[in-house]
Amino acid sequence: MQEPVTLDMVLEQARNHPDESQRIGLGEELLIRAGTKVVSALTAAVLALDAIGGEERILDKDDRRELERILKCLSPDIGNGVEKLNNLQDSLANPFDAQEQKTNAKSLRDARKYFQRGDHIAVDRELYSHHAIYDGKEGVVEYDDFIVKTASLEEFAQGAKIYRVEETPAYEPDEIMERAYSRMGEQEYHLLFNNCENFATWCRCG
User: How far apart are the C-alpha atoms of 152 and 139, rounded to whole Å?
Assistant: First the structure.
C-alpha cells in the first residue's frame, strides 16, 4: 500500500527543492504549520457545531477560502500561512479534481458562448490541469511559463476542451479581472504554493 502523503513529507520536499528559488524557508514553514493548527481548530469547531445541529460535513474549498479571508483580517501573518496551506491542498488535489470536473468540458466554440467574464477555467494536461481567468472576450490571464500573462482562449486551450472550476467567488467579475491584471508580469511561480490554479483561485476567492 502506498504511504499516505503528510504535511511533513511535503514540507521536507519544499525545503530541499532542487531549484533554490522554489525552496521554502523556516519562516514560511512556521507560518504553514501555524495555519494548519488554526484551520484544524476552526474545522473542529465547525464540525462540532454541525454535529450539535444534527449535520455532518467536512470543510470544502469554499469553506477553507472563507476561513482564510477571515484570518487575514484578524492576523495577516496567520492568514498568509493558511493561504499557503490552502494552495498546497489545492495543488495536491489538482490531478484528481481535473479528472472529476473535465466531464463537463466544452469545445472551444462552445466555451466562447458558455463562459463568462471572471470565470475560473481550466484545461486537462493529462497529468495535471492548467488554469486561468477568462476575460469574457476570448482571452485569458494565466500563470504560464513562470510568468503571469495574457493569452487567447485558443492558445490557452491548445486543442483541449475547457471546463469551468466551480467555486464561490468573493468578488464581482470586474474586480476579479482587476485582481488578475494587478499581477501581470509576476515571476514568482512555485509548483506547490503559487501555481496557475492558486493564481486563478486568488483572483476569485482572495
Answer: 4
Buried b (16+ CB within 10 A) or exposed e, 16-36: eeeeeeeebeeebbebbebbb
Summarize the confidence of residues 107-133 as an average pLDDT.
91
- Residue 130: strand pairing partners: 123
88 and 21 within one domain: yes
Sheet holding 120-124, edge to edge: 147-152, 139-144, 129-134, 120-124, 162-164
Total of domains in the chain: 2
The reply to whether 20 and 54 lie within a common domain is: yes
Q: Do 59 and 121 have their domain in common?
A: no
Rg (CA), the chain: 18
Cβ count within 10 A of residue 153 = 19
Query: Around 7, how many Cα atoms within 13 Å sit in the side-chain half-sphere?
Result: 16
Rounded CA gap, 63 and 47, in Å? 12
Positive or negative: CA dihedral 156, 160, 165, 169: positive
Instruction: Quote the pTM value.
Output: 0.65
C-alpha cell at 50: 454541525
Rounded to whole angstroms, the Cα distance separating 48 from 46 reads 5
Which of 16-30, 127-141, 183-197 is predicted with the least confidence, judged by mean pLDDT?
16-30
Higher pLDDT pick, 146 / 80: 146
The Cα 66–Cα 76 span in angstroms is 14
| Secondary structure class of 97 (helix, strand, coil) | helix
Residue 102 near residue 163, CB atoms below 8 Å: yes
